[in-house]
Amino acid sequence: MIIILCPGIHDLELTESFISELLSTVSDSAIGYNQLNILVVPTQGVLPLSATYVLQFMRDRLSNKRASPVIFISFSAGVVGAIAAAWQWQHEGGQVKAFVAIDGWGVPLWGNFPIHRLSHDFFTHWSSLLLGSGQNNFYAQPPVEHLTMWRSPQTVQGWQVDSSVENTTSNIRLTAAEFLHLLLRHYEAK
């Protein structure tokens, strides 16, 4: 499984922390280190906002693997460039297995692939749904600071929400890291 990680505009240490947590989460599961290929889009300045930049990075790294399915995991400003790159990648014949937006508040998310949102509080979750989302999403409860979602997803408690179900009794309590782990397991099995 190829994961395209699109960070936002922040210190590199936050992304390193996120990757470390992601790898430790999956190492305890059926998804192993050898099955994950994580490509981190380098971020300098406002480059995470550029779909052209993200797409060129993908073309450079995956030119001979266009048929390989990819999962985008993007954060904050990185969601902007990543969603447009995902559309274009698919338009060029690539396969987008899923798109995960972590705190991509204000970014419209539509596509011909599954989309999931993770939000640092309920307001961000609720207001982001108006701009498109998938059926299965997550929001932090209690609310956390924006950067905590990326730096320490294992510490963020919250709710997995099935947006197709009207009543909240179907919501599941877990951490943001556990939610991501469930998504990866789901898409690995597909």
UniProtKB/TrEMBL annotation:
State whether keyword Membrane applies: yes
SUPFAM superfamilies tied to this protein: alpha/beta-Hydrolases (SSF53474)
Superkingdom is Bacteria
Q: What is this protein called?
A: Alpha/beta hydrolase
Keywords associated with the record: Membrane, Transmembrane, Transmembrane helix
Transmembrane segment boundaries: 67-89
